[in-house]
Specification:
The two termini are 34 Å apart. It is built from 12 helices and 2 strands; from the N terminus they run ααααααααααββαα. It has a two-stranded antiparallel sheet with strand order 1-2. The protein has 2 domains: 106 residues, Orthogonal Bundle (Endonuclease III, domain 1), CATH 1.10.340.30; 123 residues, no CATH class. By secondary structure, the protein is mainly α. Bound molecules: iron/sulfur cluster. The site of iron/sulfur cluster has 13 residues, from helix 9.
């Protein structure tokens, strides 16, 4: 998933899947694979994901950081506290908050909420926060709202395997990653992000809001001005 978090920057997931398949075929889809592959070859393998020179360099930079700081061990890296690791990732060239949080949540099972375009669009259309609200404001809004679920974060949970069936509203059957054992806190954030993506892809389209069929239609405010501050947004979320 770490590789996917880099490749998905500014591109559709279908293009990322093609690049991942190329990496898998070349047996390069691992830390060692990226470390040992010359950058020109890496660029060629991931070209379908777009911005391939930039992304190949970012993957190399990440592995160099991992080697230098954690002796090449993802387990050692992910054992660090969430806030500390997030800060380190954000300090790396080419890692913004969405990429850092995707790595933390999906690869490391750290309980953080990933803010993406779908989330921004839904919040905007529901007049909770505008499209260009700061990333950190949106992340904190979700993490505070979902915080109560984290009181059981010491427990582990596992999504039941359903023999490759595609759940309703999902874009693909459960993957090894989506059914992996994870803490309850990480599970809550993982599931919420998945639900936002599902609504964004199936109902809250960029060019068209299919509110009549959408499971969130009852939460859509009929009228009223867009909220102007995070404090106001938090108040509205709590009152629901
Ligand atoms: S009800 Fe659904 S489609 Fe309509 S604005 Fe809300 S999230 Fe988007």
């Amino acid at each position: 998933m770490i590789v996917g978090a880099f490749l998905t920057q500014n591109t559709a997931w279908t293009n990322v899947e093609k690049a991942m398949a190329q990496l898998r075929r070349a047996r390069v889809l691992s830390v060692a694979g990226i470390r040992n592959t010359p950058i020109a070859d890496l660029e060629w393998l991931i070209r379908s994901a777009g911005y391939f020179r930039q992304k190949a360099q970012r993957l190399k930079n990440f592995v160099a950081y991992l080697d230098q700081r954690y002796g090449g061990s993802l387990d050692r890296m992910f054992a660090r506290p969430t806030a500390e690791l997030r800060e380190q990732l954000l300090a790396l060239n080419g890692i913004g908050p969405e990429t850092a949080d995707s790595i933390l949540l999906y690869a490391g099972n750290h309980p953080v909420f990933v803010v993406d375009t779908y989330t921004r669009r839904i919040l905007d259309r529901h007049r909770i926060l505008p499209l260009d609200a700061p990333y950190e404001d949106i992340r904190k809004l979700f993490e505070e709202a979902l915080g109560e679920a984290n009181f059981v974060s010491e427990c582990e949970t596992q999504v039941p395997q359903s023999a490759g069936a595609k759940p309703e509203g999902s874009c693909h059957p459960p993957t090894r990653m989506s059914t992996a054992r994870r803490t309850a806190g990480a599970q809550v954030f993982n599931e919420m992000h998945g639900l936002m993506v599902g609504v964004g892809k199936n109902f809250c389209l960029k060019a068209l809001a299919r509110c009549e069929q959408c499971p969130l239609r009852e939460l859509l405010p009929a009228r009223g001005p867009r909220l102007k501050s995070t404090t106001e947004a938090r108040r509205r979320v709590r009152s629901r």
